[in-house]
Amino acid sequence: MNNRLKELRAKHKITQKELAERVSIRRETIIFLEKGKYNPSLQLAHDIAKVFNLPIEDVFIFEE
Amino acid sequence: MKKSVYFILGVVASLIIGLTIYLSQTLFDLKEIIMLIALSLLIIFALFIGVRKIISIKNNEPTEDEYSMNHKKLAASKSYMISLYLWLGILYLNSNSSIDSEILIGGGIIGMGILFAITWLFYYFRGTNNE
Questions:
Q1: Is the Cα torsion angle B14, B20, B26, B29 positive or negative in sign?
Q2: How distant is the Cα of A11 from the closest Cα of chain B, in angstroms?
Q3: What distance in Å separates the CA atoms of residue B68 and residue B56, rounded to the nearest whole number?
Q4: Could you count the other beta carbons within 10 Å of the beta carbon of residue B48?
Q5: Section B59-65 average pLDDT
Q6: DSSP string covering B21-57
Q7: In contact, B62 and A27? CB cutoff 8 Å
Q8: What pLDDT, on the 0 to 100 scale, is given for residue B4?
């Protein structure tokens, strides 16, 4: 699973720390997500997508 | 970045301590030195985890979250599986060597701790993607 977190953060001018605070997770988790080293739960993916006002599939790209 | 520096400093310190003790072998024999180094590594790992938590508290972020819990559970399950082979080896040594059972059991428990630390670090650097 890929994601557009870094790109969307830059677009919305949100730092990793701010995003982490808004979804109540550690900044380290955002780093791992951006590096593609961790696939989030559906709940976390939903929360992150909500921050950017986008549907989940626009933030997280599922590969078959 | 800070965390990595703390970890590297810890490893260097343990190596220096281990080497110093090894060079002054009049106090300890080899078995004791190995046990001491293993215990030092475990203490350093515990300190590393503690420092991470303190940094999280200072930064007003949760000490545990979805990723850290998954990471911990994965490391624990894998290290438990590997430790079964460690205990198998210890059982073999118990019946085929002259090493005391107390030392073997102590070594097994410390070994389990070290295995957990190693698997935790492995998944820390590799990530837990699709696990």
A1: positive
A2: 24
A3: 12
A4: 20
A5: 88
A6: HHHTTTS--HHHHHHHHHHHHHHHHHHHHHHHHHHHH
A7: no
A8: 65
Secondary structure letter of residue B27 according to DSSP? S
The residues with which A2 forms a beta bridge, in sequence order, are: A61
- Inter-residue contact A58 to A64 (CB < 8 Å): no
How far off is chain A from B41, nearest CA to CA, in Å?
Answer: 24
- pLDDT recorded at residue B17: 76
- Assigned token pair, B70: 């998954």
Query: What number is the ipTM of this complex?
Result: 0.84
Instruction: Classify residue B37 by burial, with Cβ atoms within 10 Å: 0-12, 13-18, 19+.
Output: middle
User: Above 80 in pLDDT, residue A58?
Assistant: yes
Helix residue ranges, H only, A2-64: 5-12, 16-22, 27-34, 42-51, 56-59
The amino acid sitting at A24 is S
Which residues touch B53 (CB under 8 Å, ≥6 apart)? B63
Among A3, A5, A58, A49, residue whose Cα is nearest residue A23: A49
Across the interface, whether the CB atoms of A40 and B59 are under 8 A apart is answered: no
Euclidean distance between CA atoms B33 and A32, whole angstroms: 37
B95 in reach of chain A (CB within 8 A): no
